[in-house]
Amino acid sequence: DQLTFEPGGQLEFSSVPYPCLSDAIERLESVLKVLKSHFKDHDVHTIQTGINPWHSVEEIGLQMSKPRYKAMSEYFSKISPLGARMMRQTCTVQVNLDFGANESMLAKRFLAANILAPLATGIFASSPQVDGKMTNFSSTRAEAWRHLDPSRTGVPDLSPISKSLHKSSCVESYLKHVLTAPVIFIESMAYERPVGLSFSEWLNRPYKGVSPTLADFVTHLSLHFPEVRARGFLELRSVDALASAWQVVPAAFYTGLLYTDEFIEKIIDRFTPKISKLSDTLKASSFGLENEEIARDAHTLMGWALEGFQLLPECFKGEQTEKQLAAFADRFTNRGRCPADDMRDLVVAKDGKIVPATFERLDDHWSQLIE
Length: 371
Prior knowledge:
Order of helices and strands: EEHHHHEHEEHHHHHEEHHHHHHHEEH
Strand order of the largest sheet: 3-7-6
Shape: globular
Helix content: 40-55%
């Protein structure tokens, strides 16, 4: 297990792999209990949401001054102000799943996970506020990431994968996406940034006499931020950090869909014809389930997720998670809503600013819906 800080002071918990979701949830809850107790002793309160709702980029500053983060900040600032917003204000709940027992399942899960990415963003959108005010977006986090750097975000070309469903097509599509992204910095050259040099170009010609090493490529991979990142497992990155009442629901949603043969086949059959429109879906998902087609697809997927999760072994699911998934579906997805809609309706603003205590009351309210 690891506890680390992100550039804006966000606290990230990364667990070791567990064979069952229930084990991972138990560990997460135990760590959160210890953290909250420790923070309370120091009169510190934490919040789980997709983006810092109160403090501006300037107020937060760069809390982690590692050379890596300074180089990243400089690189992204040349593209837009959203790079600083991403680094300092955003937070996700990432679900990490294995690729499956064979190469065929690897290809299916990789394709399906990418198809699900924008829909998951809309379903779990939970960041409608930033800089002390409400925005027009349900996931302001997703909107920031979408404009961050198109060369290293989004999804790779899924067409070759949909046609062959082979591991090789997954590798080729992902590698192409990675290699076309610019090099952010070269660590061995004191983090120098070669402007406009893609990793593919660097492979073909040295930069100031320096050619890339395997370590350089590993660093480049760590600076690649697609919706689904391949790291020897599937790192699913599309979901806003959620309040504690709903924090395990994305994992139940994804496992219900990707760990059941019946529903992974349904996802591929139904949604592969739509992959040419995936970039449009990514754009629309920042508004939650406002788009009628996304709302219909979300409703369908949530139904499949509930059915699929019921098919998983009891020891995998645990006692509460299925209830939490069903409560989330009833409260939000089945009504064409997402958590951001409740936040707009129920979070009280005072003098144009969002009251921190209201978030705690809303989380308590959501928790009561599950009991």
